[in-house]
């Protein structure tokens, strides 16, 4: 064979790399994203139910609804880190499947809730059942691709979150309109039918997911070799790498005593506070347009209006993560959206019409969703193994605390002040704090650091 027919080693390796990443993107990411879609729909279904019958039937005040929404996160926090450590020990296939089946069963019980106390108890148990799913999914996908591809993969995965509202809000509205089916109120019908997919997907996940590239039959030998080698080489310099003499207890301590982990936890707190303030109260705010602007919306009208901000958010998320992947993740990929979100969310209060208000909220949603997948590419730059499991779970725990705080504090402040001005100003302030901390973290750059092995504060310029 002529020498010209044999591709150079670098070209062959590039072809193997492209095919391996493409297969991971096609075989794993859509399924895990579908799991995330169902996960987010389950946890936010209460926000569609409250203004469409549940609030009246259970006699909920804004503070009670906020507490019911937020207590989910307390349950999640209880088992967040232990769940992710269990996933690291037993494998993502078994643990993510177990999580889905148990949360589906708990979610199904919402169909028959009778009072606020039962609602509180089930929301808490739902958090316990779901504990570890999101950080587990992030950890699982991070273990399949090297860091230079991670923003792209996490971006594709994260598309499920805004698309849950794009498709989930109209679906929830349609199900709520099935009032009387099986003798149930419409909001109970919705809980019934959004719960069953979680149980089904959990059973499928047990057989479909694969814990590591070396076990994937759909990868060629060359693709397995490249992925395994690239990940091992990248992990060699990270906290938690077993090859450096670490063990689970030591790696857990390393993650919990790492200052960068705690800074990232606070940054994530600000983003998630804004995310859930929107997710839980946007349907209620839209419902309030009827009195504020003397208009009337049907259940489906409110569902479609709720979905409006999230379709542009999904598009911006995709383009933003694509830009970060092609050009390298920079500080402004995370801090920039935080500033835009921090300014626009209180600005929405001063718009003079539903259209203008929803338009500004759309900008806020775009900002939050653009930053989140890029943010999650950062922890795995300096953590691996048990330390990554613990560190990612700890950061996500801060997010769950934010989810509880955003839900309860927003409702409480609304009841106390009579409007959403103070609650949304607080959201804006927290997002601006996230921007400041991200810039501060990145300011510790060592210009002479090797770009391939830079730690997060040094990789984000």
From TrEMBL:
GO MF term list: transmembrane transporter activity
Domain Major facilitator superfamily (MFS) profile residue range list: 28-446
UniProt keyword Transmembrane helix present: yes
Keywords, comma-separated and alphabetical: Membrane, Transmembrane, Transmembrane helix, Transport
Membrane topology of this protein: Multi-pass membrane protein
Compartment list: Cell membrane
SUPFAM superfamilies: MFS general substrate transporter
InterPro entries cross-referenced by the UniProt entry: MFS, MFS_dom, MFS_trans_sf
Gene3D superfamilies: MFS general substrate transporter like domains
Gene Ontology, cellular component aspect: plasma membrane
Keyword Transmembrane helix: yes
Taxonomy, superkingdom: Bacteria
Residue ranges crossing the lipid bilayer per the database entry: 24-41, 61-83, 95-114, 120-141, 153-176, 188-209, 261-283, 303-320, 332-350, 356-376, 383-408, 420-439
Protein role: Component of the tartrate utilization system and may allow entry of tartrate and tartrate dehydrogenase.
Name of the protein: Putative tartrate transporter
